[in-house]
Request: fold
Amino acid sequence: MKKSIMWHYINEETTLLKNILLREDIQKIIDNIEQEVETIYFVSHGSSNNAAIAVSDFLSRYANVRVYCYTPANFLYNCTTISYEERSKTLLIAISQTGTSRGTIEAVKKAKYLGFSVLGITAIKDSPLDKLSDIQLPLNCGVENSNAKTKGYSCTLMILMLLSIAIGLKKGCMDKQQSNKIFDELKNCVDELADITKTIIKWCETTKFGENIKNGFVIGCGMNYGTALEGQLKLMETMCIPTMFNDIEEFSHGMHRAINKNSTVILLNSEHICKELTEKTFEYLKNKTDKVIMINASEDKIDNPMVITIKNHPLTQSVLGITTIIQILSTFIPELNECDPNLDSNNDYTDYMKTRIQ
Reply:
């Protein structure tokens, strides 16, 4: 157990996130943008897209901007709306951890052709995305040589939340007291990650959750709808099995029919965010499968061994802590089932399709 390189990356997160919290360049980068941003379009693939979705409402709420999240193909071929935006008040944010995602690069080229400014977020300086962007915002997460990204995703979440604060402060729709309150919550979240990691690894070893897993469902709401997307992607990438995600409200509109005794379900529960519905769904599903758990970040203390409770952080909906648990599960479960989470499974497809630009 604990052989995958992913454990190393997960253990790096606390230090990396603390370093991001100390950065002063994010506010400076935003302050140097001449335009007054009223609309933001995110363009990104995979985990980067999931992070953008997770933070999109947070950004809208604290920076008073309209936010739209697109995958590159959807932006290229299904986004007429950007043509109607005021170019002087619209910013496209492209995210690619490696800076080489072909689809993201093509979307950036389209945006620039249409006359929009582009802010690029990447971990690799002088990568194609870094060079093409009008504004560069380094991800500073280091190299991550694994199929399923962990530390890069968490760092992207943190960067985007700090970016939201920076825009809010620049626009004057957030004061220093508000920003300090969010900042302090983020710091507390990061300080808790080491203990969360130890606790969840011990819980996994005790319960052996995910043993003989055949499929997976991850269900969340609010900011943790994005976490649900990321959770299903991580389980699919590391276990190479069918997985699904949904919003807890949408679960009853079809997905619930697929649940049976062989189903593995992970529910994400945050205070005031569909809390009652999530807890009732957990009670219902307990009678359908013994492979259902709830990651609980509400104030309720639920006495059940299949409920993992962490501290409630209302401003950020405990997104960092819940994300860490998802990452641990996605690394532990393959090893529990004697699988390599970085197994070569159709890895030649990306080369065949030339999805990276070097």
Remarks:
- The beta strands are 39-44, 66-70, 90-95, 117-122, 135-138, 216-220, 243-247, 264-270, 292-297, 307-309.
- The first helix runs from residue 5 to 21.
- The mean pLDDT is 96.
- The first strand starts at residue 39 and ends at 44.
